[in-house]
Amino acid sequence: MTATALVDQATQSLEDPYNPTFCCRYYICLLSHINTGDEFWENPIASDAPYAGNLKLSLDSMVNLPKSMKLLDRVSIFMTCDRSREDMAFLAQRMEHCECDRTDSLVDSMHAWQWNPAAFDRYPEGFTCRTTTLGGLIAIIADLLCAAFELKRSGEDHQKQWPRSRTDCLGDSDESAAVMFCRWLDEYPILPILRAVGASACLFARGIIVPFLLSAHLPKNLVAILKRGVDSIPSDFEGTMDAFGVLYPITCVFTTMRDISNIDDGVSTAYFFREHCSLFLETLNRIAAIDDRLPWSMNATWDDGFSMGGVVHAKLVLPFDETKYHSKILDWSRLNRMTILAVQTPYELARNVMLTLAELPAQCMNARCPNKGGQGPFMMCSGCKRVVYCSAECQDKDWNGRLPHKSVCKKIRVLGDATGIPIYATPKIEPPQIEISEFQRRVSERTGLSMVSLMIFNENCLPDDRIRRVVNDSELPSLSDLRAIALTNCIPFRI
Question: What are the alphabetically sorted keywords of the record (predicted)?
């Protein structure tokens, strides 16, 4: 028996990705013999079968050989082709129960093996994937794809290497492939799939990152696996130099988070984690505490994780509560808040502030209102004719308060009157679709306010988290989106 004969047989058996010929045990044995070129790689299979001395496969060679490329095509499409949850359950039931034709000597030899307990495993206890289930097979395929994608990115003659095109491994649709990566991860929340997600994001960029960021399953599982990684660390842990020790799951999750965030300034990824931000930031607090007591500093990958926490904290405008958030998160949040607002011009910021004031549901504008915004009836400020208060006491406190209304009152009135932005928008009265250039023209011609005056106005308005939470989103494609953000993100007003 030769490796070529086995590759041919396996390739033919996967011609129909929905109906593979053999069981999990067969494919696990074959794919486990592929040396990925990793310096830590070690064949996890122990066998005395006749094929053992002949089956030597190298991924470095396979990505350049047409016959081997065909096998990689089919293995990849097996994982990325569209399957429903019911399809996945049926596939597991079928492939985990061997009905292979063992009269074929090639097929029979691929079943005569056991796991080698002494072989190196990059995944620590609690995260190992060495089983003969469909989950074990998916783990091996995901690790193989990760290694192949990394080879593709680093290869000198990468145009000829597998995958020669994205359809070789993603099929006809990036979106469908991304959905399947996330669906497999939801079924089997394991590190190899996370690594494949990150590697595919690095190789195929925006086409597959956008569907990842739209996934309902990916953020949930990233945060859940991160928490599992922290939970698995012994309470008396004092540090180790083992790159694949108990800290590896944390590093692996942070790496994936970094890889899928390379698309914009953090807007998408911040809202990507919004539903899970409490657990995410709580887990980051624990990781930062672990990092503080390690005898050495973890590499930049952990900084990527803390930075992501800072982006989430900044974009969602969470409070700077040092009793709730670790200083590493708050430091990155401060940096990200400055970066987020720096990309908007003074006129753009002022326009968005005025639109936000128009869109905010009626509420007491005293940031420290004892009624948490009040329920009405409200009294309107006679100066700006734009903001309201639930009582004279709240109005007096806000006039000279922490965010003194007196510093912006006249300018709010002047800007509103000059640009035609209504006092309050309603479902029947939407704000004008005023572009930045038109806003700037009206301000310049009708108010006499200088750019410096606008900058001071913005600086006085933006400390109000209710305004900042909307204005933060610097990449809104239209004013209708600004309206939607205001109505959804500013209720409730305090997080």
Answer: Metal-binding, Zinc, Zinc-finger
481 domain residue, yes or no: yes
pLDDT at 12 over 90: yes
Residue 479, in any domain of the structure: yes
**One domain, residues 301 and 418:** no
Give the pLDDT of residue 475: 44
Q: Could you read off the pLDDT of 239-293 as tens digits, one per residue?
A: 766 666 889 999 999 999 999 986 654 456 777 898 999 999 999 999 999 888 8
Residue 38, classified by CB atoms within 10 Å of its CB into exposed (0-12), middle (13-18) or buried (19+), is: middle
Residue 28 CB: number of other CB atoms within 10 A? 25
List the domain range (segments joined by +) for residue 125: 1-168
Mean pLDDT, all residues of the chain: 85
Nearest-10 crossing angle of helices 174-187, 85-95: 60
Distance CA 403, CA 418 (A): 24
Quote the longest CA-to-CA distance of the chain: 92
CA dihedral 94, 98, 101, 105 (to 10 degrees): 140
Q: Is the pTM of this model over 0.85?
A: no
Q: Are residues 44 and 122 in the same domain?
A: yes
